Amino acid sequence: MSVSKDEYKKMTDKASPPSPVVKNCLFAFFVGGFICMLGQVIFDLLTMYGISDDNSRALVGMVLIVLTAILTGIGVFDKIAKYAGAGTMVPITGFANSVASPAMEYSSEGRILGTAANMFKIAGPVIVYGCSSAVLYGAIIYIFGLY
Amino acid sequence: MGLDLLKAFVVGGIICVIGQLLIDLTKLTPGKVLTMFVVIGVLLGAVGVYEPLVEFAGSGATVPLTGFGYALAKGVREAIQEEGAMGIIKGALTASSAGITTAVVCGLILSVVAKPKEK
């Protein structure tokens, strides 16, 4: 039997497993959602004990950062991140891991030029562009009196 | 409380899916996506659309890195309200000090107590 290119494509699409993009997105959704939900549980508990919203938000970040550092240290974070992709990378856990992981991996190259210098490989750009865009925003609202 | 958790889960999950799509469908590396997310957060915080999302989804909006960007923009605005022009410079790092300092100190402790994995 002869098949055209289009028909062949339809047949292979039918036979092949669902695209990795769909699978990756499902993992990202459930793991990322779970981390944010965990953050909300911590936030609700802290505000219940009378801590201000702003401080509770900062504390949620701190707790997730410490948890990430511990999971990175015992080698569990990488195993979760392999499947979760953006699910662990996009939340603050990804920022924490991007600091903790090179800090640990490069310790053999010394505490200063190994650990400390490599900590900021990803966190550095994030802080540079985050702060710079915030300064630009601040300058604009200050000049035009929009604050 | 239950609804709070569901909203945080769904909104946080969706933001992560957007990140996953950017990684899978474009040639952007994870480092670039993280940087983009923070800048987008500053932008959305600046134009005032992120605040309602934070009110709706709580940690679902503040835990992803776009929330970090939002916190930078909010910090700058509040610092300017308090002390004028100096706030333009002081606001961003003041708002993010807890997160950055915690991450750095944890990293340093980890480099002392944890052994690098075999490669």
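qc> Residues 19-105 of chain A form one domain.
qc> done
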